[in-house]
């Protein structure tokens, strides 16, 4: 059972900071847009304003999210395993770990690739997160309005969970192709680099595995996106309500 929770320390340490950044940027972007366009930061944003705020949120999130995703995948995932030995020569093939943990992973990448190495796959992450967050916050807003027909200023917690869950599923499914490309580029082994860039990764993946490769894991993303986003939006709305009461 413990194997399902292997490598949880780094995600637990980073997820709080990352989600605080995402929701903080989204809230403040709405305030700034409302202040700039209407002279009132408390005025509710229209759909176009929400789309701009969501896109900016996705762009800013890459600054922190790209290194976090890279370390999570390489320090604890398949990017941390290389095979040594040669089965063709009659010898055994064994797995060997490249990194002892997140700190060793960071230092190794910085030594071999510099700061740019921490942003490997960043271009694919921009393609994932900018439209991904637009299709995250906009559906949430629309579903909240549909599930709160009485015009209340704040939706019921059940409506928030349902709207957040549906928005999360929509966002993750539509972001799956870019996420596949991002994951492949980040897991690209330092010693055996296969991809020279985003377009090369897309073309190579399509030629070798077909169009379906870009939708691999879409159903899993939809399933995991629902409870994760439902909980996240509920915590976000309840936190705002709590702090605004002071």
From TrEMBL:
Q: Where in the cell is it found?
A: Mitochondrion membrane
Please list the GO terms describing molecular function.
transmembrane transporter activity
Q: Gene Ontology terms, cellular component aspect?
A: mitochondrial membrane
List, alphabetically, the InterPro entries matched: MCP_dom_sf (IPR023395), MCP_transmembrane (IPR018108), Mitochondrial_Carrier (IPR050567)
* Entry keyword set: Membrane, Mitochondrion, Repeat, Transmembrane, Transmembrane helix, Transport
Its placement in the membrane is given as: Multi-pass membrane protein
Top-level taxonomic group: Eukaryota
Solcar repeat residue numbers: 45-146, 155-242
- One Pfam family of this chain: Mito_carr
Q: Which PANTHER family match?
A: MITOCHONDRIAL BASIC AMINO ACIDS TRANSPORTER-RELATED, SOLUTE CARRIER FAMILY 25 MEMBER 48
**Similarity comment text for this entry:** Belongs to the mitochondrial carrier (TC 2.A.29) family.
Protein name per UniProt: Solute carrier family 25 member 45
* Lineage of producing organism: Eukaryota, Metazoa, Chordata, Craniata, Vertebrata
